[in-house]
Amino acid sequence: MEVNNNIPFNKPYLTGKETHYIYQAVASGKISGDGLFTKKCHAFFEETFGFHKCLLTTSCTDALEMAAILLNIEAGDEVILPSYTFVSTANAFVLRGATLVFADSAADNPNMDISTLRSLITPKTKAIVPVHYAGIACDMDALMDLANEFNIYVVEDAAQAIDAYYTNRKGEKKPLGSIGHLAAFSFHETKNIMSGEGGMLVINDPKFAARAEIIREKGTNRSAFFRGEIDKYGWVDMGSSFLPSDILAAFLYAQLENLNDIQNRRRAIWERYHQALTPLTDEGKITLPFIPNFASNNAHMYYVVCKTAAHREGLISALREKGILAVFHYLSLHKSAYFESKHDGRTLPHSDFYSDCLVRLPMYYELSTEQQNLIIQTIQAYYLSV
Ligand SMILES: *Cc1c(COP(=O)(O)O)cnc(C)c1O
C-alpha cells in the first residue's frame, strides 16, 4: 500500500518572480502602501477586468469591512447573505451592528437560492451579499433586478472568483466582481492568485470611490494629498488602516503576470477530475459541481458532494489512508456557536446538506498527473465498497 504520498489539500504556487519584485519594492525606498507595485496591481485589474476602481487591502475580510462602512450599515439594518459561507462575509456587517438574515443555498449548488430572497426582504434590508462559491457565479441578473426593485445595495463576496464570468441576459460576459455596487476579492494563499494574505475592494458604483480611499487611509484624505490635489491632509471621516505594504503588492504582481498560465493549469486539473468522476454521478453515488449556462469556471475548487455525512467521512478517511488530504468546508453560520441564538429559526436544509456532505479535493498548480490519478483511483475504489 502506497502510504505517505503526502498530497496536501493546497500548495501555494510561486511563479519565481515574487522575491525579485519584493526586492525591487524594498530597493525603491517606498515600502508602505500605495507604492509602485500597488499601482501596477490596480492598473492590471482595471485594464484586465474593466473594474471601475480597485483598492488593494490586506485581506478580503478588510475589503468587506470597508464595504460595510461605505454603505453606512448601522444597528437595525438587515443584510441578507448565505449561511454557507466564510465567517468574514458575516462579520463585516456584524461589526457595524447589522442584523443578519441568512439565505439557504440552492438545491443544485452551494450558492444562495436567489428565488428565496424576495421573501427575506423587508423595509430594513440595506444590502445583499452574494458569495460566488467555488468561483461559480450566482444568477446576477435575477439578483440585481431584485436589489434594484427594492433599492438595496449588492456587495459581491468574490473572494474565490478571480477570472470568473457571468453572462447576462443580453449575452454580455461580465467579470464577477464588476456587477454589484461593491465587490471584495481575496489573495489568501488558498486562492488562485495569492500574496499569502491580501485582498481588494472593487468600487463599481462611482459614488463610493472618493470615500473608499478615505476610509482605507484612516479616515484621512491622504490619497488625494499624495496625488497633489490638496495641499494638506486631515481627518475627514471614519476609517482604518486597510492598505497593504507595497511588499505584498509586489508579490501579488508576480502572480498576476502569470494569471493565464496559472488558470490554464488549474482548469486542466479541474477538467481531469470532472471527466474521471462523472461516471460515479451516473451511478448516483456522488454529485459534482454544477456550472449553470450563465457561469464560467475559474477552477478555484474541485468538490464532490457525497450522499450522506457517513459516506463523506468514509471518503475522507480512505483518502487520508493514502496520504491525501481532502477537506470539508463551511459549517452553516446560522447554526454556529456565535449566531445560533440570534438566528430567526428558519431551517436552511441545503446549507446544512453542503456542510455535511461536500468535500474538497486537492487542487493546486503543482499537483502532478500521478498524484491526481491516485486521488481519482482512491475515490473510485471507495465507491466500489459503498
Ligand atoms: C477566503 C474567503 C474570504 C476571506 O478572505 P481573506 O482574504 O482571508 O480575508 C471571504 N469570503 C470567502 C467566500 C472566502 O472564500
Please give the structural blueprint.
Elements: H1 18-27, H2 36-49, E1 53-57, H3 60-70, E2 78-82, H4 87-94, E3 99-103, E4 125-128, H5 140-149, E5 153-157, E6 165-167, E7 173-175, E8 182-186, E9 199-203, H6 209-216, H7 222-226, H8 246-256, H9 259-282, E10 286-287, E11 303-306, H10 309-321, H11 349-357, E12 358-360, H12 369-385
Parallel strand pairs: 2-3, 2-4, 4-5, 5-8
Antiparallel strand pairs: 1-9, 6-7, 8-9, 10-11, 11-12
Give your account of this protein's structure.
There is one protein chain. By secondary structure, the protein is α/β, with parallel strands linked by helices. The protein folds into 2 domains: 18-257, Type I PLP-dependent aspartate aminotransferase-like (Major domain) (Aspartate Aminotransferase, domain 2, 3-Layer(aba) Sandwich), CATH 3.40.640; 259-384, Aspartate Aminotransferase, domain 1 (Alpha-Beta Complex), CATH 3.90.1150.10. Helices cover 36% and strands 13% of the residues. The protein is built from 12 helices and 12 strands. It has helices spanning 18-27, 36-49, 60-70, 87-94, 140-149, 209-216, 222-226, 246-256, 259-282, 309-321, 349-357, 369-385, and strands at 53-57, 78-82, 99-103, 125-128, 153-157, 165-167, 173-175, 182-186, 199-203, 286-287, 303-306, 358-360. Strands 1-9-8-5-4-2-3 form a 7-stranded mixed sheet, with helices on both faces. A 3-stranded antiparallel sheet has the order 10-11-12. The protein has a two-stranded antiparallel sheet with strand order 6-7. A hairpin with a 5-residue loop joins β6 (165-167) and β7 (173-175). α3 (60-70) crosses α6, α9 (259-282) runs parallel beside α12 and α10 (309-321) packs across α12. The protein is globular and about 75 Å long. The two termini are 20 Å apart. The model has no long low-confidence stretch (mean pLDDT 97). Residues 59-61, 85-86, 88-89, 131, 157, 159-160, 186, 188, 199 line the site of pyridoxal-5'-phosphate.
